[in-house]
Amino acid sequence: DAGVTQSPTHLIKTRGQHVTLRCSPISGHKSVSWYQQVLGQGPQFIFQYYEKEERGRGNFPDRFSARQFPNYSSELNVNALLLGDSALYLCASSLAVGRGNEKLFFGSGTQLSVL
Amino acid sequence: RKEVEQDPGPFNVPEGATVAFNCTYSNSASQSFFWYRQDCRKEPKLLMSVYSSGNEDGRFTAQLNRASQYISLLIRDSKLSDSATYLCVVNKHGGSQGNLIFGKGTKLSVKP
Question: Do the strands A44-50 and A110-114 form a parallel or antiparallel pair, or are they unpaired?
Answer without folding.
Answer: unpaired
